[in-house]
């Protein structure tokens, strides 16, 4: 017989899921109600409004897709790419490669703009790709690369798409609520995110927003969207404001309680304050890491405050360090992904996990484990350096 | 400012979501751990084993898809249908129609076998369809039609597919854990379900299982699966037993805590006991409804014990009755769907909600509301008739 599962209380400082607020865990376990219950419909409306705030948009089609961020990504591509379409895809990490897969599985042609892992997307190279491919109807890029901890210039890339009469698809899985994201001001057309990063919500849901121009393109498609589950014309019938709600699928009721609560918390704090908090804790962590003698993998001007890529010191056993952090300190940090496996650690300070307590926990634990491994570090230097920059 | 959401405690006797056990709600709010945490990997293995028990299968590829039942359906179709394939689709309610949509969006040709809503799928008609379409590579049907409350003969239909060298895709969203379902004994090839029906879990996850023959067809595909998110070859890399787990998407960690707990509860009760409980409470409900003077919409031999379709008495205001049940008794029952809208109610007795208490609650509330509406019913007759058949 299999027994009930009781997980330990970890501190989640990897690339996500991040620590979930007790308020959110309280919300997810509230009694389930029907997905067509009038009170649930009211909750759906509130979630739309709260997501509009988080995305800084007035887009009517702003909803949570009932599946993880990968499905939110796919929702953007299957609705906007038609067979034969040319899509410019910027890749500077793992997730640009996934975008390429999405384009090709929709029958589209992906024109790749490649930048090194750890560098931002080059706006100049992207401009050149448009010049070479004036037929491109879409530009897709990642705002905050979770695999490398790099921020790209989303405002400039969205503007470039507009100049070239293309729509933009923007991955904001790791950026939403962690750094500035202005969907309307930047003119982003299809934007997806995840709940398990800077929203500090449980994983499993993907907020998306589509501009009026994107909705128009969806409504004028000649080919049916290849996914029934992700067909926004059908989903709109369930989430839409101006229609009698038509049953499409059973919404993940409790997950949406959790998302609602995390968005209420974001609204209470205010976006600007949330961004400032992420920045402050990031600076303290970096000061501590550098005082310890470690180096950051990304140039200062391109760093994401919510995801800190650190070079693994030579001679240190990557997996052994992460295992010790987990076993002895219940602390999870992230391994490198793809080309950066074994070369970097990714230390998340996302949402609820972006706290002075976590900065201190991480520096203390990392120092202890690295010392034990015989790494050459400055013992005792990290905490004072970090604390000088921390406020509570 | 938007405030936190506190739902009322409903009694969920619609077509799902059904009442969620307090044990499951307790599990979902346990601390989130990482989706690559060794303890989470262990949880994944336990879930696979528990799902194998629930499905009565030894299929290695038995996993929860990280999205609702509609996505589980789509996972079966996108992985098994290639462009140009002929698929025989049986339709006797809403969900057969959705299967047709899936086939067509995969570039397949759907040959429809139509039966009246409220009737089971005709095995004879299906046999005739195979005779007319020997090129068919798949047979798709719904075991338990949620829109009508009808059970079809899944064993016979799976056998028929085998005789014709076709694979079977079986919708068991409403049947799993409520009535007999023997994936291996029946030779079903691709089977999907949902968490929010007889598993009494929160909505949002779709258990699926694929036979070795189905896996072989997936591995020999010439066209890439059109969905990246639902591509089982990629998902297998994350859930597979024989590989180093490869990151595919972030699993919905807390939802899987909930699913695990609901499956542990099913294992504790035992499948046969769970089926017997569903049958017993169903018989009591029907006895009560008929004593009240109402009639069932489905012939006795085809009824699902977990979903009871009742004819709405003439002159009774459908919506007003359901609203009164919800507002005055916090009781949700289901409206008719599609062709049966306004003609039937669907009363669920699923999983944790299949209890003597819910039978009594429903009969009492319905009698009160129908009396108030001036319907011609036998007041006072329902409870004694039901209680004679109830055990606690």
From TrEMBL, chains A, B:
Annotated GO MF terms: alanine-glyoxylate transaminase activity; L-serine-pyruvate transaminase activity
Record domain Aminotransferase class V: where: 26-337
Region (Disordered): 1-20
Keyword Metal-binding: no
GO terms for biological process, alphabetical: glycine biosynthetic process, by transamination of glyoxylate
Entry keyword set: Aminotransferase, Pyridoxal phosphate, Transferase
Cofactor(s) needed by this chain: pyridoxal 5'-phosphate
Domain of life: Bacteria
Modified residues (N6-(pyridoxal phosphate)lysine): 197
Record-listed substrate binding positions: 346
Tagged with keyword Transferase: yes
InterPro entries reported in the protein's UniProt record: Aminotrans_V_dom, PyrdxlP-dep_Trfase, PyrdxlP-dep_Trfase_major, PyrdxlP-dep_Trfase_small, SP_NH2Trfase/AEP_transaminase
Entry's family note: Belongs to the class-V pyridoxal-phosphate-dependent aminotransferase family.
PANTHER family, per the entry: ALANINE--GLYOXYLATE AMINOTRANSFERASE, AMINOTRANSFERASE CLASS V
Protein name (database record): Alanine--glyoxylate aminotransferase family protein
